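Reference record
================
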Amino acid sequence: MKILVTGATGYIGKRLIPILLNEGHHVVCAVRDALRADKTYLDDKHISIVEADFLKPETLINIPSDIDVAYYLIHSMSNSSKDFESLEAQCAENFRTYFEKTELKQTIYLSGITNEENLSKHLQSRKNVEDLLASKKYALTVFKAGIIVGSGSSSFEIIRDLVEKLPVMIAPKWLNTKTQPLAVRDVLAFLSKAKGNEQLYNKSFDIFGPEILTYKQMLLEFAEIRGLKRFVLTVPVMTPKLSSYWLYFVTSTSYKLASTLVDSMGVEIVGKPSDINTILNIKPITYKEAVALAFEKIEQNSIVSSWKDSMVSSGRLKNSLHKYINVPKYGCFKDFKKRPIINEEKTINKIWSIGGSTGWYYGNILWKLRGYLDKLVGGIGLRRGRTHISDLNAGDALDFWRVIFSDRKEKKLLLYAEMKLPGEAWLEFKIEDGFLKQTATFRPRGLWGRLYWYSVLPFHGLIFKGMINKLVEN
């Protein structure tokens, strides 16, 4: 089959593509920015990368018309746009309009369980998208999932942060809300087994794990798996805004995403039974099994995708990396340093391992302080870390930076700052002619931007000098 995967750089999309390839299909990956596509795909003849933005119907012509099955994995968990509901609706309408003129046979849409009358804005939007995707020209299969549990998923990482950081939690009353968590491996099984199955045409199914748990129970069972003793006290007086701040300051989530999650967590997510498990021969695993499996992946350093690499976690960027890849030359302050390299391979490995648990090689206390200050003013701080210990790809989150360009063969890594700044900042590492060249570029915004640069200049001189010296050490 020729299969289209929209949201190909997202949490589910990245995990679904290898499964489809292993089954022998040709996969067309639709991305808004080709820079974010996995570089390993470029050498695979069974993968095609096309740039297509479903908010811009004129770009959809790049998608082949002979697609057999399409996966619709386009979602927005961000509150950054007040008009996100109309934007999601527009994407769905543009998708339907284009594919009604093609050979598409089936669309598979991953949505959220929407069985309550009072839905959150995001769940209501997903329900509207389902209606808009329906067509008489192709079949629509809808899977509605609740909380997805897997290494790198937003729910997993947030629960992990809460459990590992807080021995005692005084938490909002929505922790008593019921849900049916589902392992990401089971989500992928439903999606992959549904393609071409005519029994599922023009039907909708709730997919969920075997247990109904409250968020409080999920926290306590997570703690049990980790061998930790935790106490959770729920209080009725915590408002949605306070709850959002509680998640924001304790976990690695952004405030916008925290607000969205709080809005959704007040609604019960319990699925309606059906025969879908029998039809596809899937037996979902328990929550504890899903958590244990997630930690196996973490310990093996084999996390395929993480919500933190999504643009939802971005502090400043939108969807395109192209506009930031050319570092400005004029109207900027620069800190340039150059050192001869003793062991090129070792230096490259250090550069591609920077940040996260490795740290920044010099002045880590100052880096952490900058992260705390950023968080206090509503920024993302250092809490995102990095998904992989020694691998970086364009679009990856790296503490409070975003990877704009990463190429080991070209020996170049370019980062763009996503912390709160009165301007824009880039950090570039490049090896050429036996030297490591390290350039920090800052484009100030007005007087405050210039004052900021001069106020941090002494620290930059210390940190950047120490960092490049450590990077070239043998």
